[in-house]
Amino acid sequence: MSNHKIEIKGFPVYQNGQDFIIGTAKIQDLLKYTMFTERLVVDFDDNGKPVYSETIQRHVETSRANQIADFLINDETATFPTNIVLGIPLSAIDSQVFDNNTVTISFKKEVIEGISKAKRGEDSYDIYVTIIDGQHRIRGIELALERLSKNPDNVGTDGISYNEKLNRLLNMDIVISCFMDKSLEYQAMIFSTINRTQKRVSQDLVYSLFGLTENDSPYKTALEVCLALNGHPKSPFYNRIKLYGNDYDGTFIPPLSQSTMIKRIVSFISVSSKEAENDRFRKRKELKGYSGTKKLPFREFYATDDDSSISDCLFYYFSSIQHYFSSLWKYDTKSKPTNVLQSTVGFEALMKILKDILSIDNNIKFEKNAFDKYVNKFADLQLHDTNQFPMTTRGKKILYYSIFIKVFPDDASIEKKKRELESLHNAD
Predict the structure, then answer these.
(1) Distance between CA atoms of 24 and 171, rounded to whole angstroms?
(2) CA nearest to 262, candidates 308, 224, 212
(3) Is beta strand 84-88 parallel, antiparallel or unpaired with respect to 173-180?
(4) In terms of DSSP H, where are the helices of 171-257?
(5) Fewest C-beta atoms under 10 Å: which of 119, 157, 179, 346?
């Protein structure tokens, strides 16, 4: 561990097209970036902060956790030979560097601060690093440390003081496996596979625990589209989405997160985040014939197994953006976006405009130059001006209203949008 950063150092492992990291961590270091919690992370918001399930919690058996604590306190040869499996979102990582056969990951300060707040008993805190498997062991370790810390002067039956046992436990090495930015479905699969080899675990329990289904889902489709757009050399999003597998150390960080893109694509399929969770359990064809008022332009594509239309739509729409704003769209390897088009808020506003376009133009064909007639209408906007178009939540609204007014000047809501835009500018 470095003096100023909390790090994980390990070896990349590749199995059947999947990758993860195997390493070790001292218990005192491990508990600086993760801890047992009953809260289940189901998503990450636009700022990379965890979003928790309102209905699903991960419980441990208190008796089992206490047995593990007893084992650690009373057995001087206590060991944990099996891995603790962690899920690490990219939003938690400050840097990751590959060097020969090793990779070093450093955590952002908010990851460490979240654990510190939880330990201080504060009401508001976030835990970014998820314990996919090993929550009973982690909870047992936490209980053992609590008991040893409260009674440091006690001496065990083996003649070793609790203070010495405490120091030994804090410095014990734990084997860890780290899965970087994997989908919730994949995490559920890992949990299921690991526990199936130890004792029979009901699949109902696995999917209730994670709030997931092993069947097809809008999230899986969104992830596949995201990966395709990031990996195609001619895509406007080529190497522009923050995915696991490349070095980034502050000198180059892709400007758009995988979770942001997935969340937006899903919002074009499902009515709400809550319904998106329910859609995990539905067959595609059950999403056909949507009659609600909310704009869901990708829903019919998903319901009819036409995922290619989703990727084509995004490819050609953002290709038009890239063409008309080529100098602004280009990302020059700086660690922070320099204009609104490179930022998350810019992507959000452009996706909102896309939803409007698709809702009005039902006959548009997803092909080269298909969106030029719309993008050309707002090509004169001075999007390089961060004072006029700040990279903030307010800036997202300003960008959206500015584009909407240009693209849909005859819309019934245009006067209202002009007033809202003026109000946003006056709020500066």
Answers:
(1) 11
(2) 224
(3) parallel
(4) 184-196, 203-210, 218-231
(5) 157
CB neighbours of residue 280 within 10 Å: 21
* Integer Cα distance of 355 and 414 in angstroms: 17
- Rounded CA separation 402/31 (Å): 47
118-151 burial, b for 16+ CB within 10 Å, e for fewer?
Answer: beeeeeebbbbbbbbbbbbbbbbbbbbbebbeee
What is the distance between the alpha carbons of residues 403 and 281, in angstroms, rounded to a whole number?
A: 37
Q: Is 385 helix (H, G, I), strand (E, B) or coil?
A: coil
Checking if the pLDDT of 191 tops 50, the result is yes
Does 379 have pLDDT greater than 70? yes
Q: What is the distance in angstroms between the CA of the first residue and the CA of the last residue of the chain? A: 44
pLDDT in tens, 94-131: 888 888 889 898 999 999 999 999 888 888 888 999 88
Task: Give the length of the chain.
Answer: 428
Two structure tokens written together for 403? 């584009």
Provide the token pair at 357: 């376009």
CB 420 within 8 A of CB 364: no
The span from the CA of 380 to the CA of 291, in Å, is 37
- Condensed to tens digits (0 to 9), the pLDDT of residues 236-258 reads 998 888 764 445 555 567 788 77
Q: Is the dihedral of CA 357, 360, 364, 366 positive or negative?
A: positive
- Reading the block at residue 102, the tokens are 């090793």
Residue 38 confidence (pLDDT) above 90: no
List the chain domain ranges: 7-182, 218-426
Residue 284 backbone phi and psi in degrees, to 5? -55, -45
Please tell me the distance from the alpha carbon of residue 377 to that of residue 407, in angstroms, as a whole number.
6
Calculate mean pLDDT across residues 267-290. 83
**Helix 135-150 vs helix 62-74: crossing angle, to nearest 10:** 60
